[in-house]
Specification:
- It is a single chain.
- It contains 19 helices and 17 strands.
- A five-stranded mixed sheet has the order 1-5-2-4-3. Strands 12-16-15-13-17 form a five-stranded mixed beta barrel.
- A hairpin with a 4-residue loop joins strand 3 and strand 4.
- Helix 4 packs across helix 8 and helix 11 packs across helix 12.
């Protein structure tokens, strides 16, 4: 028994060391300016990822291809990246004003541009975390591509298996595939990937787009084709970092523009010196909580209303709520700074409080007239950049105006280590992975505030990880079972708290007694096979926890 425990701990230490090595390597490659992922320069990244075998990348260490991990990665990278030999990470360098059409990945808001047949440019405006995210995904993609080439190459001259010849014919065919032709192509592809016909048929439609129904075949073919070229002709794929990106990174350029636009808007609308409550959340839950009851006047249970608003086909209902919100003083700031963080500002003086279905103290609202400021989710280290810039005083006619920030509330989604998808976590401290840095705080939200609502609630420390795609069971079990007693993992908490503490306790930009609230709903349980982020989204199971947290935050603000 003791032997096993020692072995698991060693594996956790190995994993922790592999993550550290990956980050040091990525920073080194970034400073160098370019690298070849499948060459000598990319070897440390490949070895570390294969040693780690993160849960999100499933069977990356096996001979067979990893399908769920591939879908997860492809959804977060630009369409067509599998065809490109040159991938260039750039800053915002003016491509939006060119003839190049932006390609935005379905699950990550970032602008990408296909420069020519061989090159894809990816715009980095959200800081280092975004670079780490992309490089990790690319390493996975290229490792998978070499699995394909290893299975189809017969000899050093480039002769390939019959399966590959048949797949190539199906992909390069200009006519639409019939069902029998598609099934024949899937059979050959299943052999290439070391998967069953049934497994491929199940995921096939998830890869498809309206313009490219056979996209899975296309991805497998191009990944394999470029890997074959690497092995036979030594024509290595290359990742480069533009000089402007290397010069700008870490200078808060996008965060500063974003924060100044917001403070200018608050100033124009005479809201700058009013009590401000900052909420980091999505762009619908606060607005729907405040305005859906009056806008929709539904007889249904309010959580059923929220659920129907979250359905894809409910655009009319969502438009009604947005219209009501705009009529009642909501100011919407669509991001143009590059942070990809949109903002909503609610002036409570213009809201008819009697139409809100949560408990409110009307005298507080009438006397104080607080402003609710909702910002969309930040990404990793970007949380520090945006909050740090936002909390700085605003200069008006040579005079510095300090923001009257009364509270900062963070509602996010996170991986849970005890419990299941849809459960709620209330952190008491954030621990920063790979360091001994820890940020304890007094959380205004308590476990008892959200209990007895049909959702499980857990309270304890949470770990801010360097990337969700790098965690494996060994390292997570260590966090969970050790005296850190971690209940969940996310990417922004320590960065938010670091910025809040700096502004309130060191720089004296805001009230030293600013109230903080943190609550997360579980998007996955990485300790359970089949419950990782790669297994798909929350669906409607995320609606109840999201709105329970939102309603509790607003209830505390209004009383």
């Amino acid at each position: 028994m003791s032997k096993k425990k020692h072995h698991e701990r060693t594996r956790a230490q190995e994993s922790s060391n592999a993550i550290e090595r990956m980050y040091i390597t990525m920073r080194h490659l970034f400073n160098r300016g370019f690298y070849k992922p499948m060459g000598v320069s990319g070897e440390t990244l490949r070895q570390s990822l294969l040693l780690l075998r993160p849960e999100i990348y499933g069977s990356i260490g096996d001979e067979k291809a990893e399908l769920e991990g591939l879908l997860y990665v492809i959804d977060r990278l630009p369409i067509g990246i599998e065809e490109c030999t040159f991938i260039n990470l750039t800053s915002d360098e003016g491509y939006s004003d060119s003839h190049f059409k932006p390609i935005i990945p379905p699950k990550r808001r970032r602008n990408c541009y296909r420069i020519d047949e061989e090159q894809m440019n990816i715009e980095i405006t959200r800081g280092r975390s975004e670079i780490y995210d992309i490089l990790t995904h690319l390493t996975f993609l290229f490792v998978e591509s070499h699995k394909i080439s290893n299975r189809v190459l017969i000899n050093d001259t480039g002769s390939t298996t019959r399966d590959w010849v048949k797949l190539e014919k199906a992909v390069l065919s200009t006519k639409k595939l019939t069902q029998p032709e598609r099934e024949i192509a899937i059979t050959h592809t299943a052999n290439i990937l070391g998967r069953t016909f049934s497994e491929l048929s199940t995921v096939y439609s998830k890869f498809a787009t309206t313009t490219q129904p056979e996209r899975l075949l296309h991805i497998v073919y191009w990944l394999g084709k470029l890997a074959i070229e690497e092995q036979i002709n030594n024509n290595k794929r290359t990742v480069t970092f533009s000089p402007v990106l290397r010069e700008r990174l870490g200078h808060h350029i996008h965060g500063e523009i974003w924060a100044n636009t917001i403070k200018e808007t608050l100033h124009k609308n005479d809201l700058l010196e009013r009590p401000i409550h900052i909420i980091s959340a999505n762009m619908h839950s606060v607005m729907n909580t405040l305005f859906a009851p009056n806008a929709l006047k539904s007889k249904k249970d309010i959580f059923e209303v929220y659920e129907s608003l979250s359905q894809k086909e409910s655009e009319n209902l969502r438009n009604k709520v947005t219209k009501e919100a705009l009529l009642r003083g909501m100011i919407y700031i669509e991001d143009t700074s590059g942070t990809n963080i949109d903002v909503q500002i609610f002036d409570t003086d213009k809201i008819d409080v009697s139409k809100i279905d949560i408990k409110t103290d009307e005298t507080i609202l009438k006397d104080k007239k607080p402003v609710i400021f909702v910002m969309d989710y930040a990404f990793g280290e970007q949380a520090y950049e945006t909050i740090d810039e936002l909390l700085k005083p605003y200069k008006v006619k040579g005079k510095h105006i300090h923001l009257n920030v009364e509270s900062i509330s963070i509602m996010g989604k996170a991986g849970i280590l005890e419990g299941a998808k849809g459960d709620i976590m209330i952190p008491t401290a954030h621990i920063f992975e790979g360091t001994a840095d820890n940020y304890p705080f007094k959380n205004e939200l308590k476990k008892e505030d959200l209990e007895c609502q049909g959702v499980n609630v857990y309270e304890g420390s949470m770990i801010t990880v360097l990337g969700t795609s790098l965690q494996n069971k060994d390292i997570l079990k260590f966090f969970y079972n050790s005296t850190w007693r971690v209940i969940g993992l996310e990417m922004e908490g320590a960065h938010y708290q670091k910025a809040i503490q700096a502004a309130s306790k060191v720089r004296n930009s805001i009230n030293p007694n600013v109230k903080v609230r943190y609550a997360y709903y579980a998007s996955d349980n990485p300790l359970e096979t089949g419950s990782t982020l790669a297994s798909g989204g929350l669906g409607t199971s995320g609606v109840k926890p999201t709105y329970l947290i939102t309603r509790k935050i607003l209830e505390q603000l209004f009383n």
